[in-house]
Amino acid sequence: MKKEYDLNKMKGRNNPYANRLKKQITIRLDSTTIEYFKNLANETGFSYQTLINFYLKDCADNHKKLKIQWIKPHS
Fold it and tell me: What is the residue range of 50's domain?
């Protein structure tokens, strides 16, 4: 085994499964939601985007349903 490797000479190849692992999207989030996950990121050492992904994945894996109740305006 060499002590050092010249990575510029090595020809790496892209992971053929990378596109299946995660997909980049654009999403709009409330600033308070972003701030919450950024604060949590500082506590845990994970990036806030990873934490959001963990949370959404948990929701999807466990088939969690959001309870939405619209309030009717007074007439």
Answer: 24-61
